[in-house]
Specification:
Length: 125
């Protein structure tokens, strides 16, 4: 994920710089060295910094909402009741997902059997 962030940061920098270059054209350096960089260039880096702060802020928010592991809660925070509650939530979700998958599998098997039965009846006639 870090590599994606580095890649995305470079892309954002290039996009913002190209938009800036099209919006505020500048003279060539050899022509007029004092006006080579427009005054509006000071706005490019804060924009890139603000765009880069968005994923960081979202990551911080999500990590603050993420519960601690049951082991940490039980051993370090000394709250075994909360640890048991967290683990029961995880186990219930896993069981529900498994039950849904099993139900879907059974339905698919029944459909396949019914279709095979229809085909065998049609083949007899």
């Amino acid at each position: 994920m870090q590599g994606m962030g580095i890649l995305f940061g470079g892309i954002v920098g290039i996009v913002v710089a190209s938009i800036f270059e099209k919006t505020y054209p500048a003279d060539t350096y050899l022509g007029k060295p004092l006006t080579y960089v427009p005054q509006q260039a000071d706005y490019v880096w804060p924009i890139i910094l603000m765009v880069g702060a968005i994923p960081a802020a979202l990551t911080y928010y999500w990590r603050m909402k993420m519960p601690e592991t049951a082991r940490y809660t039980a051993l370090v925070a000394r709250n075994a009741k909360q640890a048991a509650s967290d683990m029961s939530k995880i186990r219930n979700n896993s069981r529900r997902e498994m039950q849904v998958r099993q139900d879907e599998f059974v339905e698919e098997c029944l459909r396949t059997l019914a279709q095979a039965e229809r085909q065998s009846i049609e083949a007899e006639h």
